[in-house]
Structures are given as structure tokens and as C-alpha cells.
Amino acid sequence: MLTYRMASAPVSEILTADTPILGNAKAPVLVVEFSDFTCGYCGKFYRETLPQMKSQYLDTGKARFAYRDYPRDERGWGLVSAHAARCAGDQGQYWPMHDRLFDQAGRLGNGVIMRIVKDLRLKQEMFGTCMDSQRHIDAIMADKELGERLGFRGTPGFLIVRTNGDRFTDAVRIPGAASYEVFAQQIEKLLKKS
């Protein structure tokens, strides 16, 4: 775990207008995950740590959570899955697709993704057109580039910051898998500064 030496900076440096976010937009702490749907440790965070974080911090308005893509293989299922999640997001179903992709991480493929599309009752033609267009690829790769600029060299990677509107301070970077207790400790430290 490293403190990221950055004075106050605009939140727009770490989030875009279309970054998927869970939790209250006015929460004083922001956790940003850089992740890949095919990463085993990312799946472990999704299954074990994120639910605890949701109940303790997101659902209580103390923190919010943002997901940024970091496909490890620029031609593999991590990139395809990231694009599928964004195409589902075009139909208002980003988070349900995100969750289902992590639930199926070891079995990802066209058949699995299309079954999820059906289960979520997405408009299949619209989804297929989005996937064929690859219109979200540049944004996905921009997420990865940001993660690399922040010092992440693999997945998962986390940036935890204190926010007060449009700016953030006190950035802490957690490279790699960490326990819920590590996240809770860092979030609590930032909450005390708020």
C-alpha cells in the first residue's frame, strides 16, 4: 500500500462522466478499482470484499465505488467482457452485467455473454450492434492507461481518496489483492479527515 503523492486535484482526473459508480455521489470517500473480468483476484474482491464494503460504506453514504477497466490482454476475454459490460450499460444494465460477468469469469465466451444478455432482457440486436462497433474500446483502453499512469502494473489495483465535491485529496494506492480489513482501515482514516 502506497500513499499517492498528489495534492488536491479534480475528480475528473480519475473519473469520467460515464465511469460506473455505486453509492452516494456526495460520499466523502471514493474507492476506484482498476480491474479485469478474467482476473481471479479481481473476482475474489468482487465476491468477498465488495459486499462487505457495500454494506459498511456504500449503503451508508460514507463511500462510493467506481469501476475502471484494466484488461490484461488487449485481445482476450477481459477486453471483450469490458466491452460487453459497457454495451449493457448503454441499455442501463451495466452493474447487472458486471456482476454476471464476474459470476461466470471462469467460463467467459460468446455463448455465456449472450446467455447473460438474454437473462438481463437486453435488446439483443442493439447489444450486437454495439459489440460489433467496438465503440467503447478506446474508453476501455483509456481506463487502462490511467491505471498505468497511477502506477498499477496488474489487476486489481485500487485508489482510495477523500472527496469534497469536484476535488480529491489524500490518495492511497493499493496495488493487488487486499483484505477487507485493509480497505476498511484506509476508508476509516479518510473519514476521520473529513
Notes on the structure:
The chain is of the alpha+beta class and 194 residues long. It has a single domain (2-187), classed as Glutaredoxin (3-Layer(aba) Sandwich), CATH 3.40.30. 46% of the residues lie in helices and 19% in strands. It is built from seven helices and seven strands; from the N terminus they run ββββαβαααααββα. It has helices at 40-58, 77-89, 94-103, 110-119, 124-133, 137-149, 180-193; strands at 2-3, 9-10, 21-22, 29-35, 63-69, 157-163, 167-175. β6 (157-163) and β7 form a beta hairpin. The chain is globular and about 50 Å long. The mean pLDDT is 92.
Write a short abstract of this structure.
The protein is an alpha+beta fold and 194 residues long.
